[in-house]
Amino acid sequence: MPLVTFSNPDYKDKTVYAVAGSHTETILKLAKEYKVPLHHDCQDGECGNCLVRVTSVDRKGRMSGFLTDKERGVLVELGKLTKDDIDRIAVDDMPSEWRLACQMIVRDEDILVEY
Length: 115
Ligand code: FES
Fold this sequence. Notes:
Layout: E1 3-8, E2 11-17, H1 27-33, E3 51-56, H2 69-77, H3 83-92, E4 98-100, E5 111-114
Residues 40-43, 45-50, 100, 102 line the site of FE2/S2 (inorganic) cluster (FES).
Protein name: Ferredoxin
InterPro entries: 2Fe-2S_ferredoxin-like_sf, 2Fe-2S_ferredoxin-type, 2Fe2S_fd_BS, Beta-grasp_dom_sf
Pfam family, one: Fer2
């Protein structure tokens, strides 16, 4: 069962046990379900208000994650991804540490979500 820990310097950390294998829940949906005060607006990958930093907290390291063109564009616009980052992610099949919570699906991995 994946563990998702939400962290913000203004709030006490909150650890959520996500449902393994659902592969349909976004970070934002999980945050709302567990009343984590994660900023959001459009919920459609356009405004960038739900920007989060995601890191691994288990030994396996992060699983790669698919970025849609829309999410990639917003992350570039926010200055969180460069062209080099995009190339590295594509070539090395690496995950981006910056994600939009409304776009990232929770996978079977333990992660820290800073918001
Ligand atoms: Fe707007 Fe996620 S809520 S991009």
